[in-house]
Amino acid sequence: MIRAVICDDETASLAIIRYLIESEGLPIEIVGTASNGQSGLELIQKEEPDLAFLDIQMPKMDGFEVLKKLKGSKTKVIFITVYNTFAYAQKSLRLGACDIIEKPIDVSSLRDSIVRAIGWNFTDSETLNRALHHIYLHYSQALTLNELAEAACCTPSHLSHLFRQHFDMPVLSYIHKIRIAKAAQLLREGASVQDAAWQTGYTSMNHFYKYFKLYQGVTPAAYRRVRSTE
Length: 230
Prior knowledge:
Elements: E1 2-7, H1 11-24, E2 28-34, H2 37-47, E3 51-55, H3 63-69, E4 76-81, H4 86-95, E5 99-102, H5 107-118, H6 126-138, H7 145-152, H8 156-167, H9 171-188, H10 193-199, H11 205-216, H12 220-228
Helix pairs in contact: 2-3, 6-7, 7-8, 9-10, 9-11
């Protein structure tokens, strides 16, 4: 599990990043947040996370200064900014940042940025990371345990053990969780319930409703109605 912190003086940005990570089903644990550069630096030095999301413009100390003081740290940094100018991008890369994301943040740019920063190394198991990579690329297909085990270069029983050890759930339950997270995203973006089901690999609407309610707590139709009024 990747450990991450978020440093941003905007409460909404903190909430959005946390929400997008959780809604994507990414195996990332947010171990702390900070609302200014000084407390962000102290948080990173204390927690030593794998990944840090840093707003560039923060009170007390900007993101660039925080990164300078983290020289030698193993923490991967992704900058967040309203002003994604060429000069900002140049300075970010020169200081050693992995990427820069422009606000307002969307799920695709966040996911792509995380992958650029850490690859698919979400866990300390290379075998499990290979399986996760395969799931995220092919979640809309009819995945089987044997197929995933082959992609991960291990036996089905060993892969099952790794998923229970790291995520406390069977492999197929994890796949359903990812599919439903993707379906919820599609519904938020205006897709119909049927389209959301088809695009995430569900050919049976009964199964789609069953798993959607299991992981989201409401039916797809109810979820879509609520989100459309927000």
